[in-house]
Model the fold of this input.
Amino acid sequence: MLFSSSIFLFLFLPLVLVIYYLPLRKFRQGQNVFLLLASLFFYAWGEPWFVLVMMGSIVANYGFGLWVAHNKRRGKTCRLPIFLTLVANLGILFVFKYLMFTLSILNGLGASFVIPVIELPIGISFFTFQALSYVLDVHRDRGQVQRSPLKVGLYISFFPQLIAGPIVKYETVADQIDNRQENWADFSSGCARFVVGLGKKVLLSNQLALIADRAYGMAGDELTMSFAWLGAVAYILQLYNDFSGYSDMAIGLGKMFGFHFLENFNYPFIATSLADLWRRWHISLATWFRDYVYFPLGGSRVDTKAKMIRNMFVVWLFTGIWHGANWTYLAWGLINFAMLMLEKFGGLGKRWPLFFKWLFTFMVFLLTCVFFRAESIMAALQYFKAMFGFGAGLGDGLTVLYLTECWLPLLAAVVFSAPVVPKVRAWADKHNCVLLDVGYALLIAGVFLVSASFIIKGTYNPFIYFNF
Done:
């Protein structure tokens, strides 16, 4: 079930809110059980069989958490339960996401395995990482073990962040499962945040997808230089508005039910270094790898530069692999690692003027995302050929057509990629400008109405990060 679907907006969400706040208003245990059942139904709506995989993950990690807590109370080592936790969770992820890819590689090296067709459960990387976070945070004393499997189930399966994040670490919401406080301020703020994300998704990302899909879908010898660049820019704006829009909706929905999730994006396109950009983009994934991979390896507090580079290499290798079973994601991760190392240890961009730092950071992100979007390494190289003038020519009428048709979402996507709205709102709050507050409320209402009209008409509506 998509957040940007009529069934979610006009049936599922209103019904869940009514039941949560009316008959169950003062019954926390009942609210938690209801949210768990609603979340399982939400996932089963599009994945009726794969909900069993998620339920298996819930039961297994509930047991692992109890085992870890038991060993800690008895003063025993937790190595075995932690090892089996990693094997079970990463094993499930490997089978569904990477087994076919691995077997195809082995067959290319001379083996003759029969490659099964395995359908990928939506959001498996997200809920698997959350399940791991539960057991690991119990082990690190960052959250109390849950005696009820229903509460573990709610944490792993809560529908706002279930299928495309943000990845919520257990330590950040452990206390909120029982002790969250719902109030009107959070609810209204959550509604506004949800609508902002809905607008990003429906009014910006979906429209920009038309340009990106057309550009990346063309054969290399048909693609002109101008349209290749337009497609590349459209894609990164689509990607940002798709994923940050989903995160906005998830954070807003969480607030409606009293949960507070950490931010997942912080205007990455204003970054003036690659390190800064990756502190602003998909923050929940970056912090997950930092806390559960980078720090345990020693982080930056190691005795040699070589070990620090090794730790960064492992993180970016895993980051590329996490995104999918394709050589393009691996290339994307390793190129980002190499550029970060040049920036950190090679002084790349260190003494440049601020504008050139920003431009370089933006261009590196833009170009590496060609690998992220392309179907294969060869397709990415063909796309680069067109971008640098070795395609069908420099320009064509197609570029003019799409610029004419899509100039408004392109312009809006560029403007809202910068912190324009927060600065305007901060100015309004500082000067007690009621008119701007009223204007913001009317803008939110307008965004919802226009987005709803697009949804009802059934326009193109993919979610990029559902693939992960």
